[in-house]
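Q: Please design a sequence for this.
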């Protein structure tokens, strides 16, 4: 059935507008310049480049700056024309870009980390540059004085970061698969809670401060939506990628989530419907359908003189079942299962054909995506990757029509 979903004719798909080539190594970050036909890229080849679209329709570098260490992360603040570049050696460099994007001046170096910088956010109101790194910490530094304000250590590499500018809460994803919510103060911080649900390192986070939703993507190929504002611990699982989820972006206006995976998969999830929570997996010593014992249940095996069976779980009801009672597979998009998963025989009977209608669209980026960012107001997306290529996409065919959503026409 999975093949059916992916091969179903889709009239609307992302339109590749431009391909930007020239980097000598992995492009770790690419950002669209608001209101300009321009892209800023940072690469493992130690360069930062600003590319502007020329009359020929091609993008050419207007700035080409070489750094001392490979570039691993980047943040750009358009109104103040400030750019922060994180490096493999743990330092963050700040530059100021001229109005015409032809010059970039060095401002400051921040000794933010002891190891590779994984994510950066700049907050103009507080004049903080906040970052996470492979030295297992989040640090926040003052951009006026250049000094370190605070630091907090985790048990594993901190891999991604989202920040709520108004309330000074930070979400940090790490390599253990945990997300930590912290409240940052001037020189201290407090851990509010930890979110556990992924079975692999957290690779991307997106915080929507209005609906108070947190989205996390992980190396376990799945995405989880955490309803932080709902305060009931509600989570939704989204499984449709076949590789690490490298980047996510939630479009609040149309209630769509765009996600990209390392194999080039681009998914657009419809979050404007009431989805169901996937069940917790139940524990049992015997199949909850036929009551045959599982193999570790020596006592019952002895009593009934039967051989123990392997335990499986029905993804729809969460019951612990044996293989014989769960021979069928089905997709179940309302619970986030866009491809076929194991279901017990009674759940299979209960799933109607219309329940299998996909609630997401899937597209091919044909590209090893390591990072993505969107200019939501124009419906543009930029992806970059380990194949050293940067691609600029028109997403308006898949993220809603311009009149209904307020996207400016291109
Ligand atoms: Zn059974
Ligand atoms: Zn079931």
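A: Design:
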């Amino acid at each position: 059935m999975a093949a059916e979903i992916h091969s179903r004719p889709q009239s609307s798909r992302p339109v590749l507008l431009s391909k930007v080539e020239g980097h000598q190594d992995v492009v770790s970050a690419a950002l669209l310049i608001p209101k300009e036909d321009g892209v800023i890229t940072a690469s493992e080849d130690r360069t930062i480049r600003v590319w502007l679209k020329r009359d020929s329709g091609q993008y050419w570098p207007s700035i080409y700056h070489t750094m001392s260490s490979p570039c691993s992360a980047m943040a750009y603040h358009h109104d103040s024309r400030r750019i922060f570049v994180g490096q493999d050696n743990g330092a963050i460099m700040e530059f100021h870009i001229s109005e015409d994007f032809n010059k970039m001046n060095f401002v400051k170096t921040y000794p933010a980390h002891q190891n590779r910088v994984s994510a950066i956010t700049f907050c103009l109101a507080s004049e903080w540059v906040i970052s996470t790194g492979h030295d297992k910490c989040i640090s926040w530094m003052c951009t006026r004085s250049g000094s370190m304000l605070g630091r907090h250590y985790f048990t594993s590499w901190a891999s991604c970061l989202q920040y709520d500018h108004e309330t000074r809460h930070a979400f940090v994803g790490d390599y253990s698969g945990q997300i930590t919510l912290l409240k940052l103060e001037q020189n201290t911080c407090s851990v509010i809670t930890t979110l556990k649900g992924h079975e692999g390192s957290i690779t991307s986070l997106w915080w929507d401060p209005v609906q108070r939703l947190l989205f996390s993507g992980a190396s376990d190929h799945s995405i989880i939506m955490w309803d932080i504002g709902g305060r009931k611990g509600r989570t939704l699982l989204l499984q449709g990628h076949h590789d690490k989820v490298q980047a996510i972006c939630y479009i609040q206006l149309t209630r769509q989530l765009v996600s990209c995976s390392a194999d080039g998969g681009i998914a657009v999830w419809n979050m404007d419907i009431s989805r169901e929570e996937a069940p917790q997996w139940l524990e049992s010593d015997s199949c909850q359908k036929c009551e045959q014992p599982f193999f570790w249940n020596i006592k019952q095996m002895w009593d009934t003189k039967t051989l123990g069976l392997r335990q499986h779980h029905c993804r729809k009801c969460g019951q612990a079942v044996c293989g014989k009672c769960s021979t069928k597979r089905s997709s179940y998009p309302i619970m986030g299962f866009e491809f076929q998963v194991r279901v017990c025989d009674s759940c299979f009977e209960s799933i109607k054909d219309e329940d299998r209608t996909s609630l997401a669209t899937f597209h091919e980026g044909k590209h090893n995506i390591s990072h993505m960012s969107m200019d939501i107001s124009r419906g543009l997306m930029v992806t970059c990757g380990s194949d050293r290529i940067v691609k600029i996409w028109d997403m308006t065919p898949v993220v809603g029509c311009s009149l209904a959503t307020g996207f400016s026409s291109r």
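Q: Thanks. Anything notable?
A: Confidence is low (pLDDT under 50) at residues 1-9, 401-410. The chain has two domains: 2-276+357-405, 298-356.
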